[in-house]
């Protein structure tokens, strides 16, 4: 792992345990990302869908997408490069599964295949074998999906990924034909760099965020078709370091693997 990736992981490790409680503004963001994803999923599927969340954090988006009944979603594999986030995600996954009567207390997954609910693995996807290797290192290697996903979602993670064109191609290969990839991240504007206060910029790869054309380019360059972009949500935020209130917009870009 590179020094840059270490820094990124350490920051999220430190935040993970109190992430949801200390950042209530994330909840409407996750609501809108989940709604946007579900709006793009095929409604004709007979089988409940199996998805992946890239940079899943504590599972705020995954837990919402799992509630979808049209189409039904069976399982989401969370993938994150922070061990702290994985621990938080899987504690939430176990609690949700117990609530739904899917597993016995203490176990995050049933051993049925495909599994139901959500489960996260530590992985920095860098090549086509890294997700398989990460899954193989879990006690659930026999039941967790590693390819042929119906959808992949990335919510405010894309700006952390170093090589976006390579990552878009990895995601394309992980999807089944007809599979949907949705990126939601902040829009590039004259002051979008302020989305991260100066004190928290060092570990961020794409500080200015993205234009809709940037995201379209990543998706089309990887071979995605039926690419659509849209505004997802606009909100105001006051800078931690300078106290100035600014407006930010999250944009979404969806592509389909033909
Ligand atoms: C801003 S958080 C967003 C988390 C979650 N998607 C949410 O909406 O709450 C970004 C997440 O991406 C993860 N991340 C950053 N770079 C990554 C990479 N190369 N591979 C996997 N995860 C990564 C971080 O560890 C962090 O959990």
Automatic annotation (TrEMBL):
Q: Could you tell me the keywords of this UniProt record?
A: Methyltransferase, Transferase
As one GO molecular function, the record gives: methyltransferase activity
Q: Which InterPro entries match?
A: Methyltransf_Superfamily, SAM-dependent_MTases_sf
Any Gene Ontology biological process: methylation
Where would you find the membrane-spanning parts of this chain? none
Q: Signal peptide span per the entry?
A: none
Matching entries from PANTHER family are given as:
METHYLTRANSFERASE (PTHR42912)
Protein's name according to its UniProt entry? S-adenosyl-L-methionine-dependent methyltransferase
